[in-house]
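Weekly sync, protein design subgroup
Attendees: M.S., D.O., the rotation student, P.L. (late)

Item 1: inverse folding check
M.S. brought a backbone from last month's batch and wanted to see whether the design step gives back something sensible before we order anything. D.O. pointed out we never logged the input encoding, so this time it goes straight into the notes. Structure tokens as presented (184 positions):
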């Protein structure tokens, strides 16, 4: 996979647990969000921006005291000027979860995870499956009395009932969807 070293595909230890103890979770969501402005539209900044990965190594440790009905969200952000990754992990409750324009309907552990982008259904991730959605959008912001356009690209990977941080998270997705606009 683009941007993923071979070492990222090997299971690693989980915090203070022995290396052979792995944990299965209801769902793991990983979002890779890239944000840029006009300053990064030309070379060499556009090369750095376009080199952001489509999957990222999950952290070795997961949030402590997680309930099997919670969702682990691994959020990785890339921004100007160097597009270096900034990573955080947290938990999300079951229900309707909105993450960077992505709606995940997480109702009960026995059902699938319905994945919507901007309110439009894309697919449902069932146990043992992996889904990936790529989408983008633009917004205008006021900074220092000037209007600037900010562009966003998000790659979201959604997995059901997999082992943390097993290699199956990096396999080819069962479901894919793309929701892309032309960004000027």
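Designed sequence read out in the meeting:
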């Amino acid at each position: 996979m683009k941007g993923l070293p071979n070492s990222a595909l090997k299971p690693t230890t989980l915090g203070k647990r022995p290396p052979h103890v792995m944990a299965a979770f209801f769902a793991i969501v990983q979002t890779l969000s890239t944000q840029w402005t006009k300053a990064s539209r030309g070379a060499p900044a556009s090369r750095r921006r376009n080199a952001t990965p489509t999957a990222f190594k999950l952290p070795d440790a997961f949030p402590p005291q997680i309930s099997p009905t919670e969702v682990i969200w691994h959020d990785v952000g890339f921004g100007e000027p160097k597009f270096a990754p900034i990573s955080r992990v947290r938990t999300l409750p079951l229900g309707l979860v909105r993450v960077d324009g992505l709606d995940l309907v997480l109702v009960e552990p026995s059902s699938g995870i319905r994945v919507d982008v901007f309110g439009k259904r894309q697919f449902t991730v069932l146990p043992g499956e992996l889904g990936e959605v790529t989408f983008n959008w633009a917004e205008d912001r006021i900074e220092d009395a000037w209007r600037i356009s900010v562009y966003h690209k998000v790659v979201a990977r959604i997995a059901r009932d997999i082992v943390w941080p097993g290699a199956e998270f990096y396999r080819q997705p069962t479901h894919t969807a793309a929701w892309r606009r032309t960004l000027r």
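Discussion: Residues 22-179 form one domain. Strands lie at 23-36, 71-79, 85-92, 95-99, 102-106, 113-117, 120-125, 130-143, 146-164, 175-179.
Action: P.L. to compare against the previous round before Friday.
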